Amino acid sequence: MPVVRALSKVARQALQAPGCGCQPLAVAVRNISFSPRQVTSGSDASFHSVSFSETDHPKVLITGGLGQLGVGLAKLLRKRFGKNNVILSDIRKPPSNVFHSGPFIYSDILDYKNLREIVVNNRITWLVHYSALLSAVGEANVALARAVNITGLHNILDIAAEHGLRLFVPSTIGAFGPTSPRNPTPDLCVQRPRTIYGVSKVHAELMGEYYHHRYGLDFRCLRYPGIISADSQPGGGTTDYAVQIFHDAAKSGKFECNLKPDTRLPMMYIDDCLRATLEVMEAPAETLSMRTYNINAMSFTPEELAQEVRKQLPDLQVNYEIDHVRQAIADSWPMNFDDSNARNDWGWKHDYDLPELVQTMLNFIGAESRVAQVH
């Protein structure tokens, strides 16, 4: 307390000093630091990423950690940086295996104070922001999507800038719209999405780049294609069919698809997605010619996916019951991503094409089913 009182006295004296043509000194006695919420003057705002030596590991916080990607990314990062250096967070109760696999903490991205305390108390240096409502779910609850995807992002950006974090925010094929070039879609082009999810992701891209140029925030972003994984359930996205088909094929041999058979979308197996995220986070800043990159692996239609699955399960029956909301969303999205900048700048290269994807998914789900039958 004596230290705080002394600092307060110094602050008052500085504020009462005669004018010298400088901007007023902004002082936050509680934390003795600045954030974009506290500083409005261009001459006072300067934020830079925390530098750490090659022998030090980053301390990572993952928001929205119980979604499709968070648990897998935590597993990958813990192998790389150590179990206790990666903290998963969410507002939901974690399953037992996740809770016992490494640090987990409650974190609500709409609670600025709570999030700030987590960053400070755990000396976070990297923040991976996965909290979001996906496309179809967002259209069903626009107000909640706006709060989580936009207001929550603002909290993340301010805290990351204030504490010099390296920040990763994923974007998506949904950040493009019907007026964007679709085959292929380059990194830089017209973006006019027609979903709250897509609008919020364009907002995230632009705000992250603004904070990078305005405050020196080390912001990094990848536009993910549809992500396919075997160990998580679909989360309300338009590309969910490409996950559900494997579960239904293994369980009943019948699948009802909610998109037209010729709907082409870019896709990626989760292992490639998580590795790309780690690689872009570790890439030297000087190799990044931009802060938001497309990444891609393959592009296929529901019919092409079904044909590949039938090579392993020839009796698979597919029925098409079109969800017009999801179909309209898919028809506005890219058919194929141009990810040449990611490949040239930081060496991105995918491992899984469609045949490898199908084999891997069926092997995983088949093994999971056999274990369930035993128990």
TrEMBL record:
Give the Enzyme Commission number.
1.1.1.103
- Lineage: superkingdom: Eukaryota
Protein name as annotated: L-threonine 3-dehydrogenase, mitochondrial
Q: Which gene encodes it?
A: tdh
UniProt-listed InterPro entries? Epimerase_deHydtase (IPR001509), NAD(P)-bd_dom_sf (IPR036291), NAD(P)_epim/dehydratase (IPR051225)
Q: Which GO terms describe its biological process?
A: L-threonine catabolic process
Similarity-based family: Belongs to the NAD(P)-dependent epimerase/dehydratase family.
Q: Function of this protein?
A: Catalyzes the NAD(+)-dependent oxidation of L-threonine to 2-amino-3-ketobutyrate, mediating L-threonine catabolism.
Q: Which CDD domains match?
A: TDH_SDR_e
